[in-house]
């Protein structure tokens, strides 16, 4: 029963997506084009996120650590 | 407050003028509003009952999604146009001939782009042929399309007893009951159907004279003239009344017939914001102060064009304020009561009666018989001088065929029924039933959480849909539930405000309205149309029954 209501809910969400983006008005080949474009875009965005976000986060973390954490040593070195 | 006469410079005759001053809100002394002291609110005396109109704006995400859907639609529109231009797709649309390819392009403006690419996709929701009388229920001919709405084919089946929420049948006079149409059948047998002449040649029948006298009595004016077509009444008579050197002040959302008549007349046209008396007053002030554009001479005539009920918004004109403005600035008023005659007012006499005003205040009363009387045609009513002038100078009188006798008889019988001259109270009952249906329908829709435009008393109920994808979906779902609705999009409405327009009728029973409302509830939940932020559905915690304790 839970799976059925879940499936209904997902179908309803899909209908909302179709209504909002005018996909319900499109002919089948247009829908194919539109969905493949959207899915390709989504896949590319996820792949880029998967590749680059950990690296960016660790670089940002190091930068902040450098600026805040190592401050006393830096000023000491400049004065010298 | 204290004794008013003590406030106004010791002129004791102020007491007797009290009633007139309260009615107009303007005193003759120093031009200041002295009625304030008695009433407390300076404009409160103009409106005898509360004037409530709603024009709620949608939440921001709705606007974003609407633009998004138009964006996607336009991208695909350009793609399809490209494919058609390069021969990758069969061309079903109108194009120029080969020899005209180097001429100025005919079909590249936005309207044609929109109709080729967006309108065509949902075209099956309009122009649906019906095959019965458009009463509270009608029969629909089933249509299917094999090539995505470019051509249609009738299957031969009729869908029976579809509830009619789109016809302008406000009082339910579109009926086939033989008893009701007795006089109409008699006149049809006596006169036939054709007139074969214009009013000024041999087309004036005794039926027209009888009808005109009846219309004049109904409205409470001196004289009236009837024409064969409602649209033509506006477009052919405004050019007869105004010409070059006159000024027309027309509402933003006036009907095409008024706009066409105004443009044909050759007068200068200025537009004021919809139902906005401040905008109208500033235009009037400028007109009187500056006169005509280059010569600065006074305008020959200033006429204000307004409608009783605006059919796309459901709003009612602010007649008392406009009449007071017109008297102050000495302008003329042309009131188009196409949708309001028969539909508002305690006895169905239109907005003039709804506001409790004198019909002499409006210079030209125009209306149509198409909506509340179940016939066709229009009338112009007012002072005898005006109507006599129109009998000689109107284009319609000189060139257009006059109204045919059975239609005139239908109007006569409907009007007699409304006035009670046929010996029954059926007319008054219809008007009251319409008022009850209107209030019930609007109240339930507000409670459910839809965004509804317009005045609480107008039988035209626009329900906002906003997104173009939902237009087709809404119409399709309602038809599946056996309810026929009219949906409207661009260009009849602004691009982002597409709507479904319901016309409540006195012939609808409470059960029919409940069926429609339940269907609307379901469809509204499925399509997420309940955008309103001020409804009970949105804030259920505010409307819970408060607890009470029983006394022992």
TrEMBL record, chain A:
Gene Ontology, cellular component aspect: endoplasmic reticulum membrane; serine palmitoyltransferase complex
GO aspect biological process, one term: endoplasmic reticulum organization
Pathway(s) annotated for this protein in UniProt: Sphingolipid metabolism; Lipid metabolism; sphingolipid metabolism
Transmembrane domains' residue ranges: 32-53
Source organism, top-level taxon: Eukaryota
UniProt keyword list: Endoplasmic reticulum, Lipid metabolism, Membrane, Sphingolipid metabolism, Transferase, Transmembrane, Transmembrane helix
Membrane topology: Multi-pass membrane protein
Intracellular or extracellular location(s): Endoplasmic reticulum membrane
Pfam families, alphabetized: SPT_ssu-like
Main localization, broad class: endoplasmic reticulum
Molecular-function GO terms, alphabetical: serine C-palmitoyltransferase activity
Tagged with keyword Transmembrane helix: yes
Xref: PANTHER family: SERINE PALMITOYLTRANSFERASE SMALL SUBUNIT B (PTHR28612)
Family, per entry: Belongs to the SPTSS family. SPTSSB subfamily.
Subunit structure: Component of the serine palmitoyltransferase (SPT) complex, which is composed of SPTLC1, SPTLC2 or SPTLC3 and SPTSSA or SPTSSB. The heterodimer consisting of SPTLC1 and SPTLC2/SPTLC3 forms the catalytic core of the enzyme, while SPTSSA or SPTSSB subunits determine substrate specificity. SPT also interacts with ORMDL proteins, especially ORMDL3, which negatively regulate SPT activity in the presence of ceramides.
Functional note: Component of the serine palmitoyltransferase multisubunit enzyme (SPT) that catalyzes the initial and rate-limiting step in sphingolipid biosynthesis by condensing L-serine and activated acyl-CoA (most commonly palmitoyl-CoA) to form long-chain bases. The SPT complex is composed of SPTLC1, SPTLC2 or SPTLC3 and SPTSSA or SPTSSB. Within this complex, the heterodimer consisting of SPTLC1 and SPTLC2/SPTLC3 forms the catalytic core. Within the SPT complex, SPTSSB stimulates the catalytic activity and plays a role in substrate specificity.
Protein name (Swiss-Prot/TrEMBL): Serine palmitoyltransferase small subunit B
Organism of provenance: Casuarius casuarius
UniProtKB/TrEMBL annotation, chain B:
Pathway(s) served: Sphingolipid metabolism; Lipid metabolism; sphingolipid metabolism
Enzyme nomenclature, EC number: 2.3.1.50
UniProt GO MF annotations: pyridoxal phosphate binding; serine C-palmitoyltransferase activity
Subcellular location per the Swiss-Prot or TrEMBL entry: Endoplasmic reticulum membrane
One Gene Ontology cellular component: endoplasmic reticulum membrane
Domain called Aminotransferase class I/classII large: residue spans: 160-520
Assigned protein family: Belongs to the class-II pyridoxal-phosphate-dependent aminotransferase family.
Entry protein name: serine C-palmitoyltransferase
An annotated GO BP: ceramide biosynthetic process
Keyword DNA-binding attached: no
């Amino acid at each position: 029963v839970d799976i059925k209501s879940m499936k209904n809910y997902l179908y309803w969400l899909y209908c909302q997506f179709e209504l909002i983006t005018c996909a319900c008005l499109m002919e089948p080949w247009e829908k194919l084009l539109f969905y493949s474009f959207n899915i390709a875009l989504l896949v590319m965005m996820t792949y880029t996120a998967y590749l680059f976000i950990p690296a960016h986060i660790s670089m940002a973390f190091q930068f902040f650590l450098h600026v805040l954490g190592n401050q006393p040593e830096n000023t000491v070195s400049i004065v010298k | 407050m204290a004794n008013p006469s003590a406030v106004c410079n010791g002129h004791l005759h102020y007491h007797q003028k009290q009633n007139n001053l309260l009615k107009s809100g303007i005193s003759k002394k120093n031009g200041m509003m002295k009625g304030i002291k008695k009433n407390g609110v300076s404009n409160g005396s103009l409106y005898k009952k509360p004037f409530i109109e709603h024009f709620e704006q949608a939440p921001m995400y709705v606007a974003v999604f609407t633009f998004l859907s138009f964006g996607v639609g336009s991208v695909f529109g350009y793609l399809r146009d490209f494919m058609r231009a390069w021969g990758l797709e069969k061309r079903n649309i109108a194009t120029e001939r080969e020899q005209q390819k180097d001429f100025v392009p005919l079909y590249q403006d936005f309207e044609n782009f929109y109709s080729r690419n967006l309108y065509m996709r949902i075209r099956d929701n309009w122009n649906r042929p019906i095959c019965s009388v458009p009463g509270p229920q009608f029969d629909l001919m089933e249509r299917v399309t094999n090539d995505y709405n470019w051509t249609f084919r009738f299957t031969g089946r009729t869908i029976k007893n579809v509830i009619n929420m789109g016809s302008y049948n406000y009082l339910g006079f579109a009926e086939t009951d033989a008893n009701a149409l007795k006089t109409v059948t008699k006149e049809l047998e006596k006169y036939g159907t054709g007139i074969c002449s214009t009013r000024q040649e041999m087309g004036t029948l005794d039926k027209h004279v009888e009808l005109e006298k009846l219309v004049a009595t109904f409205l409470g004016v001196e004289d009236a003239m009837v024409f064969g077509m409602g649209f033509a009444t506006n477009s052919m008579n405004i050019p007869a009344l105004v010409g070059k050197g006159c000024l027309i002040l027309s509402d933003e959302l006036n009907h095409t017939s008024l706009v066409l008549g105004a443009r044909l007349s050759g007068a200068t046209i200025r537009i004021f914001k919809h139902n906005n008396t401040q905008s109208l007053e500033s235009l009037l002030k400028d007109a009187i102060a500056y006169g005509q554009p280059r010569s600065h001479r006074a305008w020959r005539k200033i006429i204000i064009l307004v409608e009783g009920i605006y059919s796309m918004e459901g709003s009612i004109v602010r007649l008392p304020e406009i009449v007071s403005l017109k008297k102050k600035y000495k302008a003329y008023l042309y009131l188009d009561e196409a949708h309001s005659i028969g539909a508002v007012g305690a006895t169905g006499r239109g907005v003039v009666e709804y506001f409790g005003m004198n019909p002499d205040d409006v210079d030209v009363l125009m209306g149509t018989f198409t909506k509340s009387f179940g016939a066709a045609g229009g009338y112009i009513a007012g002072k005898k001088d005006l109507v006599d002038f129109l009998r000689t100078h109107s284009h319609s009188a000189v060139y257009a065929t006059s109204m045919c006798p059975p239609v005139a008889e239908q109007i006569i019988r409907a009007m007699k029924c409304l006035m009670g001259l046929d010996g029954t109270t059926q007319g008054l009952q219809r008007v009251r039933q319409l008022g009850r249906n209107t209030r019930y329908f609007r109240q339930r829709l507000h409670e459910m959480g839809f965004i509804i435009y317009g005045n609480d008393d107008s039988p035209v109920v626009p329900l906002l849909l906003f997104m173009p994808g939902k237009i087709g979906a809404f119409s399709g779902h309602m038809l599946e539930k056996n309810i026929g609705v009219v949906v409207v999009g661009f260009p009849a409405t602004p691009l982002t405000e597409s709507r479904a327009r319901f016309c409540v009728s006195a012939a609808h029973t409470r059960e029919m309205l409940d069926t429609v409302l339940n269907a609307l509830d379901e469809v509204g939940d499925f399509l997420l149309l309940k955008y309103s932020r001020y409804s009970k559905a949105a804030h259920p915690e505010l409307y819970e029954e408060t607890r009470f304790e029983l006394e022992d």
